[in-house]
Amino acid sequence: MEAVLDIYERAYEKTHPVVVVAESPKQLISQARLGFTDSKGVRYEDYEYKREGVVDLYLVCEPLVGWREIFVKDNHNRLNWAEVVRIVAEEQYPNAERITIICDNLAAHKPSALYEILPPDRARQILRRIEFVHTPKHGS
After folding, report:
1. What's the distance, CA 134 to chain centroid?
2. What is the dihedral of CA 72, 76, 77, 79, to 10 degrees?
């Protein structure tokens, strides 16, 4: 954990951003019954809900500049994670020389997945610019 904390202590460098990528599954629900107001003006709500599935939220943030963005994906797999990494490297930090990405050590966090979504030369170009730092188990 000290290695991760040391990275958070680095001074800000525009060409070497420190970015956190985290994800969380979220249940989607809808309201099963509409509330109503009785003749005396009392509002009644029924808190029954209908399950509408699950999505995965990816939070990408750069703590030293106070910036964050959230991406919604259908699930949490290596290809969706790779797409988020691609967005970080090519769209959010296209001019950064080196990007440090801090993430937890999940099975879906496979840098090799970039080769499944991109041509090999483009995937390699991205990976040459990224330093992955994994938080320890139960440490994030």
Report:
1. 14
2. 10
pTM of structure: 0.83
Query: 90, 82, 83, 73: which is closest to 125 by C-alpha?
Result: 90
**Class of residue 20 by CB neighbours under 10 A (exposed 0-12, middle 13-18, buried 19+):** buried
Domain segments of the chain as ranges: 2-24+57-135
pLDDT tens per residue across span 28-63? 999 888 889 999 999 998 888 899 999 999 999 999
Instruction: Please state, in angstroms and rounded to a whole number, the distance separating the CA atoms of residues 44 and 79.
Output: 45
Instruction: Report the Cα 6 to chain-centroid distance in Å.
Output: 22
Domain 2-24+57-135: which CATH class?
Answer: alpha beta
